[in-house]
Amino acid sequence: MGNLAGFHLKLGCLDDAESLLTEVVESQRRTLGDHHPDTLISKHNLARVYLRLGRFDRAEGLFTQTLNAQRAILGNDHPHTLVSRSSLGELYHRTGAYEQAEAALGGAISGARRALSGQHPNTAVSLRRYGRWLSDVERLADGEPLLIEAHEIFTAVLGPMHDESVKMAEALVQLYEAWNEPDKVSRWRVDLKTLRLTEHGSRAGTRRGDRRASGG
Fold first, then answer.
1. What is the distance between the alpha carbons of residues 157 and 148, in angstroms, rounded to a whole number?
2. Domain total in the chain
3. Residue 209 belongs to what domain range?
């Protein structure tokens, strides 16, 4: 059921995802306990749905509850704890609580650098969220290196055409537009166009191969 909720999330069907995740959380509470790591992951995911729905009070309560439990059970620098801390920072970003946002987002990056070796996707997520917050509060020079590092990690770990890598390139275009850096905007737009043409060609080749294989 958790995988089905993730599928609905990817499609943007937030109400369906909320309903399914609520069932998952209640089931895990009964069978695993309220503070089992799997239950806490599901609670975090439900809080992210609330965040996307704009139900900030419910999201904050569930993020805080989950984060406190993960700190007590898993430790401050466990990957799950760091993701929850970063998510709480993202909520503060969305609600304009800038001091809390910076503390949570910056703390998540510091913890990720201590605890996660090499180019870890969780580090990239924390870098992306903090970099976007810095960009939104017009600290563009501070946000730029974080977004570049996040893009480099996603590209190295997930590949240049992965959604996360493409989103980071798009975020850098937006940053350079706000910064009035037309040369950098053009460079990143060319990179994005090249990626999209490559992806389109790859998909077209796959479809042709499928038709040949099926005798079409």
1. 14
2. 2
3. 116-216
